[in-house]
Write a structure and sequence with these properties.
Number of domains of chain B: 1
CATH class of the largest domain in chain A: Alpha Beta
CATH superfamily of the largest domain in chain A: P-loop containing nucleotide triphosphate hydrolases
Order of helices and strands of chain B: HHHHHHEHEEHHHHEHHH
Number of strands of chain A: 20
Distance between the termini of chain A: 45 Å
Radius of gyration of chain B: 20 Å
Number of strands of chain B: 4
CATH topology of chain B: ABC transporter involved in vitamin B12 uptake, BtuC
Largest sheet of chain A: 6 strands, mixed
CATH topology of the largest domain in chain A: Rossmann fold
Radius of gyration of chain A: 25 Å
Number of domains of chain A: 3
Strand order of the largest sheet of chain A: 6-7-8-3-9-10
Strand content of chain A: 15-25%
Largest interface: A-B, 24 and 25 residues
Helix content of chain B: over 70%
Structural class of chain B: mainly alpha
CATH architecture of chain B: Orthogonal Bundle
Oligomer: heterodimer
Strand content of chain B: under 5%
CATH class of chain B: Mainly Alpha
């Protein structure tokens, strides 16, 4: 392995923002035909490094070499011209126009009359087929799943400029297992064509599945670059966090302390509860001080159960008892009154009001519960907000910080605080740790168990099995919108994966 | 195959509904008032809605980019007043027309630039445009100015006979809208400009990141809108042979309603100009039914159009929800 194989090397890149050193003398290199993971917690400097590489930000010092020649990346357009393409987590395409247009717009073929639709569709279809995606490219993009849209974004970036370097920024965060597998197939193909791929992800499983090397950043500093095969996972996490795994150990300990609290009264009791087309009849129980995990693939019915119990959807089968009382009228308001709170899956769309301050966000549900005419005094609001900021360890200079300026993990904590303030009995957490870094994840998990210890009951939904295992006292496994099995006590991830896959 | 038909229906649902409603309304009129069955009544629609069709076409592009243009009726009035004043003073009619079109384009360019570069809401900018244009029209003349120019009179009074329909005719200005419609269909479907309009309406940020010329396209859309308004103003002053600042009151709202009835969504990115044609024709049909009735107040048109617009927005969101599933 010599340096001459490097298609990209970034040397001693330094970038500061007012008051923060975002990158301090970071080195990064990429070889031809390599998949290179860029790993780090939120705020580690991953995105700044990518921004420097794509010309969005300019480094204070340091140099970038492409194929051994020093370059200065002036703008995103310029980076594309240099052969660097990026596919972002949020797909930057237009859903109302056809797949073919999304791929070809800007360099679409013309004939004497105007846009040559026939040729454009043929070219686009061919380009998609090269990645083994056979779809009708004349349909509008919005008709397809996020996974397909992601492929379209990749195809576009390949077509716009035949890139030497492809940056995939959290491409799998909204894909299910099969879709991810397909994407990985595509990545392998591109790799075999000699394209160097920078892969940014929070999913460590995927890092081990697909990448050749790993570069770890922490607090704007380079921790190191390692061959994937020679870096055990536990060491990787240690390097990312910069501490041993005490946090995670604490989670396990907290769970054990809770183990004894089992056969207490049941708070939520569903018998044959179901909704045609959403979820099949299911039996479900939740006791005081218990964490029940819902595991299953995307679309297996996890969120649907949450929606039924919280009263967003009205079931057409079975019955639901909350604290022994039969529910006849399903509505979120009713549920709130019964002491149930739901933190929805998509916190940006459904939970957080980014333009309000932390205090205002926290107070929202409480105020709604009081009614809009019994105003909570500002003084009292600050008291409540500051209390939760301390309790949950929300990293912020003050309660008046706008929520959109917080990191993902802290935003999630604000949502938790909002519902905690209403003092619910039952918490439904739908993907509470999605898109946040490992450290924050551990904190949220710890918090969940802490709540359980205080006698709250929690329904914990996550696509990360490890996390479900770590936090839950009982695990309900869902498959194809049915309950496939229920496990309590010690169960290994292998058994659950097999249940999810339908082998058991 | 059935899958394709289903997709076709879902993708074109709003347009097909508009066409169906037009046919239904027209036939209902024909049954109520047999005189409406004459072909000439159908062609009268194009005579009566000549200006509305032109501004609605411009409006369609604006709305496709998620914008709105409230200045169109003011621009029509300004064009009519300004051309009448120039013609009274003996300026060559061709020069007048060219000047008016240039004025419309410049006016649109200015509004588009303010909207894009200063990031001011289109609603506000074009509302100011409306005030400005109408105000200027009244500054030019407080009363209606009659146009006696022979070229204008020739254009206004020459009948164009329709082939295959004996005795059926339209006037020369009525042809402008249909021709503009063909141009608009071409622009929307076969040029990068048109496709960029759709992309911007869906997601401006994405369109920008896709490297599409967002700024240029948005400004051109308003310039095209201004051009259409001036063109409509010329057509308007030819058919009335006069100019006045109070002309075409509220026509911007009729245009918006026609565009919406034609299946274009106010949220941008969805719709087409063919639908707009039918939206305008529905508007015209309601007017002629009321004329044939003779006893009902002409304000029933507004009520009818209002009700239809409301129904249409309902149907659109239904289709949209269906499509999402």
């Amino acid at each position: 392995m010599t340096d001459s194989q490097n298609i990209l090397s970034m040397n001693r890149i330094k970038k500061s923002f007012p008051g923060v050193a975002a990158l301090e003398n970071v080195d990064f290199s990429l070889r031809k035909g390599e998949v290179h993971a860029l790993i780090g917690e939120n705020g580690a400097g991953k995105s700044t490094l990518i921004k420097v590489l794509t010309g969005v930000e300019h480094p204070d010092s340091g140099s970038i070499e492409l194929d051994g020649k020093p370059v200065q990346v002036r703008s995103p357009q310029h980076s594309q011209e240099l052969g660097i393409s990026t596919v972002y987590q949020e797909i930057n395409l237009c859903t109302n126009i056809s797949v073919a247009e999304n791929i070809m717009m800007g360099f679409e073929p013309h004939n004497f009359f105007g846009i040559d639709w026939k040729k454009m569709n043929a070219l686009a279809s061919e380009a998609m087929k090269r990645l083994d995606v056979d779809i009708d490219v004349t349909q509008s993009l919005g008709n397809f799943s996020v996974a397909i849209q992601q492929m379209v974004a990749i195809v576009r970036s390949l077509e716009v400029a035949s890139p030497k370097i492809l940056i995939l920024d959290e491409p799998t965060s909204s894909l299910d297992v099969n879709e991810t597998a397909h994407l990985f197939g595509v990545i392998r193909k591109l790799k075999s064509e000699g394209i160097g791929i920078i892969f940014i992800t929070h999913f460590l499983d995927q890092v081990y599945e697909i990448t050749d090397r790993i570069t770890v950043l922490r607090n704007g500093k380079l921790v190191g670059t390692y061959n994937t095969t020679s870096l055990p996972r536990i060491e990787l996490i240690g390097k990312m966090l910069g501490r041993s795994l005490t946090e995670l150990d604490e989670v396990s300990k907290a769970k054990q302390k809770n183990e004894q609290k089992k056969d207490t009264e049941s708070l939520v009791e569903a018998k044959g509860l179901g909704l045609t087309g959403s979820i099949e009849a299911i039996d479900f129980e939740l006791h005081v001080g218990e964490v029940v995990g819902l595991a299953g693939l995307l679309g297996s019915g996890r969120t649907e159960i949450a929606n039924l119990i919280f009263g967003i959807d009205t079931p057409d089968k079975g019955s639901l008892k909350i604290k022994g009382k039969k529910i006849n009228h399903f509505s979120p308001l009713e549920s709130l009154e019964n002491g149930i709170a739901l933190c929805p899956e998509d916190r940006k769309a459904e939970g957080i009001v980014g333009d309000l301050t932390i205090r205002e966000n926290i107070i929202l549900a409480l105020q709604a519960r009081y009614g809009w005419f019994k105003f909570i005094a500002t003084q009292k609001q600050y008291e409540i907000a500051e209390n939760y900021i301390k309790l949950l360890g929300i990293a912020t200079p003050s309660a008046d910080q706008l929520v959109k300026n917080l990191s993902g993990g802290n935003q999630q904590k604000v949502i938790l605080a909002r519902w905690l303030a209403t003092d619910p009995q039952v918490f439904i957490l739908d993907e509470p740790t999605r898109g946040i870094d490992v450290g924050a994840k551990a904190e949220i998990q710890k918090l969940v168990l802490q709540l359980a210890q205080e006698g709250k009951s929690i329904i914990f939904i996550s696509s990360e099995l490890e996390e479900v295992l770590r936090t839950s006292h009982r695990i309900v496994v869902l498959r194809d919108r049915k309950k496939a099995a229920e496990y309590s006590g010690d169960v290994d991830d292998h058994t659950i994966i097999q249940t999810m896959a339908g082998i058991l | 195959m059935t899958q394709r038909i289903k997709f076709f229906l879902i993708n074109n649902g709003p347009l097909l509904t508009t066409i169906t409603i037009f046919i239904l309304v027209y036939f209902a009129g024909g049954r109520l008032y047999p005189a409406m069955q004459k072909p000439q009544v159908f062609f009268n629609l194009f005579i009566n809605t000549a200006a509305l069709l032109i501004v609605s076409i411009g409006m369609t592009f604006v709305i496709l980019t998620k914008g709105i243009d409230l200045s169109v009726a003011g621009m029509i009035a300004l064009t009519s007043a300004a051309s009448a004043a120039l013609l009274v003073n003996g300026v060559n009619p061709i020069v007048v027309m060219i000047l008016m079109l240039l004025m419309g384009i410049v006016f649109g360019l200015a509004m588009g630039s303010i909207i894009h570069y200063l990031k001011v809401e289109p609603f506000i900018v074009t509302l100011m445009g409306l005030f400005f244009a109408r105000g200027m029209a009244f500054i030019i003349t407080l009363s209606s100015l009659t146009i006696k120019d022979p070229v204008y009179r020739y254009l206004a009074l020459t009948k164009v006979h329709i082939p295959f329909f004996e005795k059926a005719y339209v006037y020369i200005p009525s042809l402008v809208g249909p021709i503009l419609l063909l141009v608009a269909i071409y622009l929307a479907n076969f040029t990068r400009f048109g496709r960029t309009v759709y992309a911007i309406g869906n997601n401006e940020q994405s369109a920008m990141l896709m490297g599409l010329p967002v700024a240029r396209t948005k400004i051109i859309v308003y310039a095209f809108g201004g051009f259409c308004s001036a063109l409509a103003g010329i057509v308007f002053s030819i058919s009335l042979l006069s100019g006045y600042g109070g002309y075409a009151p509220g026509m911007e709202l009729d245009a918006i309603a026609s565009v919406v009835i034609g299946g274009t969504m106010l949220t941008g990115g969805v719709g087409n100009v063919i639908g707009t044609l039918f939206g305008v024709l529905i508007n015209g049909t309601i007017v002629s039914i009321l004329q044939f009735n003779g006893t009902l107040s002409s304000w029933w048109t507004r009520i009818g159009v209002g009700a239809l617009t409301l129904i249409f927005i309902g149907i659109q969101s239904l289709f949209y929800m269906k499509k999402k599933n």
